[in-house]
Amino acid sequence: MTLQISDDNRVRTLVLDRPEALNAFNEELYLATATALREADADPDVAVVLLTGAGRAFSAGNDLKEMEARITDPQMSDQGSHFTTMISALTDLTKPLVCAVNGVGVGIGTTVLGYADLVFMSSTARLKCPFTSLGVAPEAASSYLLPQLIGRQNAAWMLLSSQWVDAAEALRMGIAWKVCEPDELLPEARRHAEIIAAQSIPSLVAVKSTLTEPFRDGIEAATARENAQFEMLLGGAANAAALADFTGRGKS
């Protein structure tokens, strides 16, 4: 299993569970998460979804070994990715999403926060959008959602620099709503999730719809722009060198 799922007080908790890979998303985890989000949305007894990670990471992002394999293996490169399946599920989610960032969040481990309604972050957690260091383009409509969430210049720094952002800076920027000590993170995130979950589900859905509907066209357009740029850069010299360095093939 790559995803733990549990219910308590109308809160469905999803725990990314690939700790040996720092909860990096492979195709199996993308599909499992997308399926779980859609099932939570359809369940009349679920009011709020809480997403966190097992072990010392929230998510180290896309599984780079699998990414390299998709580039070098013609059969894999011809297949679509469940990354888009998960982004569609996040975009379509009608119930509140609370994220508890328990450790490092890299790539999709950061950009997923653009779809959250509340973000809680451990004081020891860090975020990074490594796209320029990997020689690729942004993903998950982050080029649109991050400026909406944290302002253009904060978003520009995160997307252009490939540098770490610590919890205090994430709070200042506005990508995190609350920063907690590590042992208080899940209890605080759950306490707030249960406050929301105690409300009328149709009302929660109505509120979320009014908050998110104005952004749907922007997400769709940004996704198309990002995908076009990503496909153009994927497998290029900078990307190939970065992936080879990560997997060890670039070392003499």
Automatic annotation (TrEMBL):
<dbReference type="InterPro" id="IPR051053">
    <property type="entry name" value="ECH/Chromodomain_protein"/>
</dbReference>
<keyword id="KW-0576">Peroxisome</keyword>
<protein>
    <submittedName>
        <fullName>Enoyl-CoA hydratase</fullName>
    </submittedName>
</protein>
<dbReference type="GO" id="GO:0004165">
    <property type="term" value="F:delta(3)-delta(2)-enoyl-CoA isomerase activity"/>
</dbReference>
<keyword id="KW-0413">Isomerase</keyword>
<dbReference type="Pfam" id="PF00378">
    <property type="entry name" value="ECH_1"/>
</dbReference>
<dbReference type="InterPro" id="IPR001753">
    <property type="entry name" value="Enoyl-CoA_hydra/iso"/>
</dbReference>
<dbReference type="InterPro" id="IPR029045">
    <property type="entry name" value="ClpP/crotonase-like_dom_sf"/>
</dbReference>
